TrEMBL record:
PANTHER family reported for this sequence: D,D-DIPEPTIDE TRANSPORT SYSTEM PERMEASE PROTEIN DDPC-RELATED (PTHR43386:SF1), OLIGOPEPTIDE TRANSPORT SYSTEM PERMEASE PROTEIN APPC (PTHR43386)
Topology class, membrane: Multi-pass membrane protein
A Pfam family matched in the record: BPD_transp_1
Protein name in the entry: ABC transporter permease
Family recorded in the similarity comment: Belongs to the binding-protein-dependent transport system permease family.
Keyword Transmembrane (UniProt): yes
Keywords noted in UniProt: Cell inner membrane, Cell membrane, Membrane, Transmembrane, Transmembrane helix, Transport
Major subcellular site: membrane
Domain ABC transmembrane type-1: residue ranges: 80-269
Subcellular location: Cell inner membrane; Cell membrane
Length: 281
């Protein structure tokens, strides 16, 4: 006999899998073509063909062409690949910096904890987009600068989660045992604290990547990111906005790709978060 409790427990589980599968499919639908683009029979994304300028979607150009006759599908795939590389590298940098500082703050406590927390408060108080635009104006919009700036300005949320979890872990009995055995603080953090932080940090990473995608696109849209003719999702929309009345597809399709990436990451991250909470319960 099936109890009411078992039925209530199954519904969230089906929802977990449904959200995760839908999010994963959206991401695969965008990421796989972008990764395979160099080996697909597509036009050069940087090649101009003024005769074919503003060609409507269809025929030889499935998504149409831009003001210089460049194939929009090729440029979107190339821009997606570059934008994802920037976002993923920036997310890894932010996660590493935030995790290290959060573990140190939560494990050591005292004045070092207070100092890191104040730095965290300052970081969270400054609007990301204004800080990044200021740094871009000072140091230029090279690919390396964009990755470093986005990573260095995004560490605070990872540090907050890592610190909160470390405060719980350091009170556990096995931590007291390894302390009594004379293990050094770096060894305890790397071998006994960090493995317990991986699950919440991975979940946080999937939830933070959409913010970085939108941030990178916003920088490109404002003309402060990677400069044309190199395509990114943001500067494709920035270039196409001047021709929206003539060629709406120049803005529509890059916008749909950004939406698919953001929605896919959010669905996948929410699914992982609910599964984690359910497992803990």
């Amino acid at each position: 006999m099936i109890s009411l409790r078992s039925v209530l427990q199954r519904k969230p589980r089906r929802r977990f899998y449904g959200d995760g599968i839908l999010g994963g499919l959206l991401l695969l639908l965008v990421i796989i073509p972008a990764l395979l683009a160099p080996w697909l029979p597509l036009p050069d994304p940087l090649k101009n063909d003024l005769v074919a300028a503003f060609s409507a979607p269809g025929g030889q150009h499935l998504l149409g062409t831009d003001q210089l006759g460049r194939d929009l599908l090729s440029r979107i795939l190339a821009g997606t690949r570059l934008s994802l590389m920037v976002v993923l590298l920036a997310a890894v940098i932010a996660a590493v910096i935030g995790s290290v500082l959060g573990m140190i703050a939560g494990y050591t406590g005292g004045w070092l904890d207070a100092l890191i927390m104040r730095l965290m408060d300052i970081q969270l108080a400054v609007p990301f987009i204004l800080l990044i635009l200021l740094v871009m104006a000072l140091f230029g919009a090279s690919l390396t600068n964009i990755i470093l700036i986005m990573g260095v300005t995004s560490w605070a949320i990872y540090a907050r989660v890592a610190r909160a979890k470390t405060l719980e872990i350091r009170e556990l009995e096995y931590i007291e045992s390894v302390k009594a055995m004379g293990f050094s603080t770096p060894r305890i953090l790397l071998r006994h604290v960090l493995p317990n932080l991986m699950t919440p940090l991975i979940v946080l990473l999937t939830l933070d990547i959409p913010r970085l995608i939108v941030l990178e696109a916003s920088i490109g849209f404002l003309g402060m990111g990677i400069q044309p003719p190199t395509p990114t999702l943001g500067n494709l929309i920035g270039e196409g906005r001047s021709y929206m009345l003539l060629a709406q597809w120049l803005v529509l399709y890059p916008g749909l790709v950004i939406a698919a990436l953001v929605i896919g990451c959010n669905l996948l991250g929410d699914s992982l978060l609910r599964k984690t909470h359910t497992r803990l319960d």
